[in-house]
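JOB MANIFEST
job_type = single_chain_structure
chain_count = 1
residues = 174
[input]
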Amino acid sequence: KLIGLLAAATWVASVVLSGRFREPRLTHFLALLFVVWNGLSMLWTVDGSATQGRVVTYAQLLALMFIIWDTVDTMPRVHATLVTYLAGSYVTVSALLVGYVVRGAASERYGRVTLGSFHPNDVGMILAVSVPVAAYLMWVPPARLHEWRRLWAAGCLVYVPLAVTIGDGFKFGC
């Protein structure tokens, strides 16, 4: 949360100092409408604290959507963002793998595999979104890695079965 707040504060400062902000698209307004509608659902919800938590999460994701939209505005930046996301996804897969090897099983919540206090759906989403990212990056490596293209492609290719197997709760025979 602290990193997210720092990123948001840095972005707001850059917008204020530069006076530049990319014009939102229809998708942004639809996402804003989604967050507002979920906020209004506080009027009729059965579980106020759970609904409030989801509304806060959706608002944070909307802010992240605007930050990414405003700052990732060229293909090299898109590529760098995807590489960074895949690297973070590798950390998730590695942490799950270490959990299996060290403890014989990763953390479980609701009977499903997860990391620490993460909701299993969030871990699953990280792994699911990163599979097409890895596939894309396998075929479109960074331009500056031309001589390392095969190694890069292998690293992306290895990620796909790891994410699918680990995310499915593979327990090394346990």
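[summary]
The CA atoms of residues 96 and 102 lie 10 Å apart.
The first helix runs from residue 2 to 18.
exit_status = 0
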